Amino acid sequence: MLDPRTIRRAAKNPAAMVSAALLIAMVCACVFGPMFMPASLGDPGPNQYAPPSWEHPFGTDLNGRDVLYRVLTGGRVSLLVGLCGALVSLFIGTLWGLVAGYAGGRVDALMMRFVDILYSVPRLIFILIAINAFNAGLQEWASREGLAWLVQSSRIAILIITLGFIEWLTMARIVRGQVLSLKERQFVAAARALGQSHFKILFRHLLPNLLGIVLVYLTLTIPAVIIDESFLSFLGLGIQAPQASWGSLLADGAGAINPVRSFWWLLVFPAGAMALTLLALNFLGDALRDAFDTRTRD
């Protein structure tokens, strides 16, 4: 459980409060904002490349679609992929590190050598192979079954699973190191003396003591997953039209740049939304790390 003193320390940190407020505002805007806007703003219109105005605060794109509407709907996808991918990474890394650190000996050595091997595999190559393999098989099956609508939603699921499976390695090492220290404490020895099972020791005694570092790592993993998804979408390997994410919007904005005229709003607003979210998450992670630091308890 969270220590009340930790919550008070985090609440006293102005950076943590501002970051949390900004994140809440961004999530609410992305989730609920499009519900209060006409759905026609996301459809092609006659006003191509219209600059920011009262009618279109973020301007319009090549197809006359409202950029504000697309930034908010794209934020839904980016935030969903970031959060769910980080949770997948957190689950795998925490479980792997718990087992490896608690088991020790040969089991620990074997499990961590597997982590080292995965570290040596280039992440981008692994992501590209996984996405192309899954997408190819899925598109063939969906077209055969007449379920074309399934392809777009499944691309998000594939991104979540793929990115989650490459971000857990660092978490496994961190948790394993903490467990190696915690399992020598007296409360673990007492639990063993009472005859408690390994499962109870792992999840009732060790895991609660890792809650702080797990939460901090979660706030730092979400930005990493969002950046990976944006990079893939920028390259055209992630979210595909008609869906949008911050990465695909940045790709559209970069494609509209030319020496004659610069449609700056197509880059500035998606990049600004993503940058503010990533900065808020990183500041929140730093504040939580300070709040959980036992060396600076009040």
The rounded Rg comes to 23 Å
CATH architecture: Orthogonal Bundle
The name of the CATH topology is MetI-like fold
The biggest beta sheet reads:
none
Low-confidence segments, given as residue ranges, are none
Mean of all residue-level pLDDT scores? 84
Characterise this structure.
With 298 residues, the protein is mainly α. It has a single domain, classed as MetI-like (MetI-like fold, Orthogonal Bundle), CATH 1.10.3720. It contains twelve helices and no strands. The chain has helices spanning 4-11, 14-32, 67-103, 105-120, 123-145, 149-164, 169-182, 186-193, 198-206, 211-234, 246-255, 265-292. α3 (67-103) packs antiparallel against α4 (105-120). The two termini are 18 Å apart. The mean pLDDT is 84.
Summarize the structure.
It is built from 12 helices and no strands.
Spell out the blueprint of helices and strands.
Layout: H1 4-11, H2 14-32, H3 67-103, H4 105-120, H5 123-145, H6 149-164, H7 169-182, H8 186-193, H9 198-206, H10 211-234, H11 246-255, H12 265-292
Helix pairs in contact: 1-12, 2-3, 2-12, 3-4, 3-6, 3-7, 3-10, 3-11, 3-12, 5-6, 8-9, 10-11, 10-12, 11-12
